[in-house]
Design a protein that fits this description.
Blueprint: E1 2-9, E2 15-22, E3 29-33, H1 38-52, E4 62-66, E5 79-80, E6 83-85, H2 88-101, E7 105-107, E8 112-114, H3 117-128, E9 132-136, E10 142-146, H4 154-157, E11 162-165, E12 190-192, E13 195-198, E14 206-209, E15 215-218, E16 226-229, E17 232-234, E18 241-244, E19 254-263, E20 266-274, E21 283-287, E22 299-301, E23 308-311, E24 315-318, E25 321-322, E26 354-360, E27 363-369, H5 388-397, E28 402-405, E29 414-416, E30 441-445
Parallel strand pairs: 4-10
Antiparallel strand pairs: 1-2, 2-27, 3-30, 4-9, 5-6, 6-20, 7-8, 11-29, 11-30, 12-13, 12-23, 14-15, 14-23, 16-17, 16-22, 18-21, 19-20, 19-21, 24-25, 24-28, 26-27, 26-28
């Protein structure tokens, strides 16, 4: 694997530092899911306090950020009006919300208060282990903010490799629009060695590689994907089965049958009779017939030849043509929300750190464009970051034939066995040292 860095100039004279990885094969790429730790929860809370809430504290109330690690069981009934909740975070969020409405639960700014001693002890235990923090804005409301199982530091979990963060993930409170959502949940098609790790969603573009190592930009859909549960195959439109996903649906129709709430490869809830909210980072499988669930696991298959795929988007270059505009759907503030709900910024003007993956002469390449510090930068001396259009133009100037954007902003990074060649955009306001943001999923070069 070869890594080279360089400096480019934008048309306004601002500079852009970049890193380009080449000299590896598609078979050298594999996915790695992170693991949520007390340290990564603390980093997320720090980000909210330092960067998100301070921008507009009137938008946020009191938020109880919490992650439930394995070995700590929530003291709640799994049978709820939102369905049978298999997922601990969805379960806890549901009952926390219910108890807030009934006046059974509150906070004093430092602790969760509850007259039910078992519930109080549960939250006290999470807090004592560093998995629960209370953050206060100015709005007069109390909300539980769940954090997923896969939200850790790329640098710590891939220290022996070169790695880059890959997919978008639920990050903003507006992203957790259903009872089944949790911050740090990745979404978008992900395929490794022909195995589908995550299903395609939202009609966004993907970099796809077939079994002959031919790479191209495609737009895989959930409708062409079969779901396998308990040895049975389910396909949209067949045998009384319907898939419901955003942005087409925010809630399933009220109708007889079973709704399975699926996020990536987990069934997080089962409900009867419809009328269920569709998760932001998943979909709902509706069956007119009963479905028996024992393992809570889902798997996927497709008929097309896909050995590797990354679906984030939008494309930067497609078949040698630089993308001059947004080429796939993103939420614009109208209609049914779907993630990322705070994206896109203006395609040709909004600058940020970017990561992208593509192919050049049939070989894979990965690009990182350094962003400006969240606290500002010295014009013409430090990287300003790039707009999506500038990213596409830079990729074209590097003779890349096909490339899609991966996750950018404060998450953007390439990590080399303990070092980075560029700076992360999240930095300390006083020292300018990097403050690594947790991510759920990374691509590893081995």
């Amino acid at each position: 694997m070869d890594s080279r860095t360089g400096i480019l100039s934008h048309s306004d004279g601002e500079i852009q530092r970049y890193e380009l990885l080449e000299g590896f094969s598609w078979n050298d790429l594999s996915y790695r899911y992170m693991h949520t730790t007390a340290e990564s929860v603390q980093a997320l809370v720090r980000l909210y306090r330092a960067n998100i809430i301070v921008k507009n504290p009137g938008l946020y109330g009191t938020m109880v950020f919490a992650h439930i690690p394995k070995g700590i069981a929530p003291p709640f009934d799994r049978e709820t009006e939102a369905g049978l909740l298999y997922d601990d975070q969805a379960l806890t969020r549901h009952h926390f919300t219910r108890m807030v409405k009934s006046g059974e639960i509150s906070t004093d700014g430092e602790r969760v208060l509850c007259c039910d001693s078992e519930v109080k002890n549960f939250f006290t235990l999470l807090q004592s282990r560093g998995f629960l923090h209370i953050v206060e804005g100015k709005k007069s409301e109390l909300a539980y903010v769940p954090i997923s199982q896969t939200f850790g530091f790329l640098s710590q979990e891939t220290a022996e490799h070169t790695a880059v963060n890959s997919h978008f993930f639920l990050m903003d409170p507006t992203d957790i629009d259903s009872p089944y959502d949790a911050l740090g949940t990745p979404y978008g098609f992900a395929v490794e060695g022909g195995e589908i790790l995550q299903p395609p969603l939202f009609g966004r573009e993907a970099l796809i590689v077939d079994s002959q190592d031919r790479a191209y930009i495609g737009c895989p859909g959930l409708g062409e994907t079969a779901v396998h549960i308990e040895g049975r195959r389910y396909h949209d439109g067949e045998d009384g089965v319907t898939f419901y996903s955003r942005p087409e649906y925010r809630r399933t129709p009220k109708e007889p049958g079973t709704d399975l709430v699926i996020v990536n490869r987990r069934i997080v809830a089962v409900a009867q009779g419809g009328g269920i909210q569709v998760p932001m980072a998943g979909f709902i499988l509706h069956s007119a017939d009963p479905i028996d669930i024992s393992t809570g696991a889902a798997a996927y298959s497709r008929e097309d030849d896909i050995a590797f795929a990354v679906q984030v988007g939008p494309s930067a270059v497609k078949n040698g043509t630089v993308s001059g505009e947004l080429t796939c759907p993103f939420y614009t503030g109208e209609g049914t929300p779907f993630p990322s709900t705070v994206y896109p910024l203006p395609y040709d003007r909004a600058r940020a750190s970017r990561t992208a993956i593509g192919e050049k002469d049939g070989k894979p390449v990965i690009l990182w464009l350094e962003g400006a510090s969240k606290n500002g930068h010295i014009p013409f001396q430090e990287s300003s970051g790039s707009s999506l259009l500038e990213t596409a133009e830079i990729a074209g100037s590097l003779s890349i034939q096909n490339m899609v954007n991966m996750d950018g902003g404060g998450s953007a990074q390439i990590h080399h066995q303990g070092t980075r060649n560029l700076l992360i955009a999240d930095r300390d306001v006083k020292t300018n040292t990097v403050k690594e943001r947790p991510v759920p999923l990374g691509l590893i070069l081995s």
